[in-house]
Amino acid sequence: MNTVDNMNTQDVREVNFDGLIGPTHNYSGLSFGNLASARNAQLCSNPQAAALQGLAKMRRLLTQGYTQGFMPPQQRPQLETMRQLGFTGSDQQIINQLYKRNPRLLSMVYSASPMWAANAATVTPSTDSGDGLVHFTPANLLTTPHRAMEAQATTHSLRTIFNNAKHFKVHAPLPSNNLFADEGAANHSRLCQHYGKRGIAMFAYGRDGIDSGDQPSRFPARQTRLASEAVARSHGVNDDYALFCRQHPVAIDTGAFHNDVVAVANGPVLFFHQLAFATDDFATIKQQLAEQFAFMPLSVNHKDVPLEDAIKSYLFNSQLLAAPNGDMTKMHLIAPSECAENTAVSRYLNTLVQDEKQPIRTIEFVDVRESMSNGGGPACLRLRVVLNEQQRAAVNPAFMLTDAKITALEQWVKKHYRDKLLPDDLADPSFYTESLEALNALTDLLQLESFYPFQQTSTL
């Protein structure tokens, strides 16, 4: 038996590590299958507002008694990939070449997509792993070129944040092979009776890998079952506690490029759309979950909330939280403000909280419109990590938030971020300098030395 199975359940918390939105946040429409990304491509973005909205959400959780951390933005522009493709010269010369020859490549190297920390990695808590460590596998994100560039820097970030080998193990990303396409925690749910007890890892996938099966016809299925199985295996998850469920092709074709667009879980609750999962597959999954604990599936009927409305509003990309003390009977839903503005979704949520047979007692709407316009809601912005007291103490304190640190980060954003950014601005030499200066100031604020690659080679 895992030695941590019997730990005090009150000692264990789910900690949200939100992605701190970077200064190059822009709308380039790079994510095929993400309807919001395509709809807002080439519009003017507001990096300052985006980062402040994200920090405001983090502050809300902190104020309510939740433990909150963050993941830093990655260095952008990321030009190493372009050098591998034969572009030469100084950084600014390469930027000029990209702008003249292929502006889409310029958008790619400036993408701020690491902000969506739900895609950073898949996490297995120590209660569920084979060796009693908290395991992380950074996602390779190889389905979309602008996100495939993230894996190496994500690995570096995770190894910096969770830098104590007595408690944490950060694996390398899975091989960059189409059979093992991995999108991280956006396609992974953990269900349990209490945080401190062994849980069930539920992996959602769009295609097997080798045997494609019933595929969506409009948009690609990003996650493979082979990738999910590899993550579970490397984390030492017992076969009896790992379940694999296929995403419904209709959901993917309607715009649910990740499963967290149509389903969210916490504790014993799985809150999901009727068309989130392949029907036959999911019937077996529900039975297996019910055999393990008091599983509570909350299915939203397509007649009550059409799939199109669920995806447009990002209803299921809400953060589903236990009470700050871990009480699973008084859950809290943090939903994007778009849910309050959608007639069908708003009506459903009003009915939901009146149903005392289910544990979601309160709903709070947050403004993350800059992220939403690029296809990411409240849940996309955070990576969930279940930690006991000793593990929380072992996290690099630079990445744990206090009210004072959030205020300092807000001041940093206001000083260094633009409030308007158009696609053509990416070619501006001053924007290149501003972006790196912002990251340099961030590492000063966090007292990190040579965190970013440019700091190891530049005198900026």
Please give the largest β-sheet. 3 strands, mixed
| CATH C-level category | Alpha Beta
Derived structural class: alpha/beta
- State the end-to-end distance: 53 Å
What is the name of the CATH topology?
Answer: L-arginine/glycine Amidinotransferase, Chain A
Amount of beta strand:
15-25%
The whole-number mean of residue pLDDT values reads 91
Structural account:
The termini are far apart. The chain has helices spanning 35-39, 47-63, 80-84, 91-101, 103-109, 145-148, 151-161, 225-234, 249-254, 279-292, 307-313, 338-341, 343-354, 369-372, 389-394, 403-416, 429-446, and strands at residues 13-19, 68-71, 121-124, 134-138, 168-170, 188-191, 200-205, 242-246, 263-266, 269-273, 296-300, 319-321, 331-336, 360-366, 382-387. The model is unreliable at 1-8 (pLDDT under 50). The protein is 34% helix and 16% strand. It has a three-stranded mixed beta sheet with strand order 2-1-15, sandwiched between helices. It has one domain: Succinylarginine dihydrolase (L-arginine/glycine Amidinotransferase, Chain A, 5-stranded Propeller). The protein is globular and about 60 Å long. A hairpin with an 8-residue loop joins strand 6 (188-191) and strand 7 (200-205). It is of the alpha/beta class and 460 residues long. It has 17 helices and 15 strands.
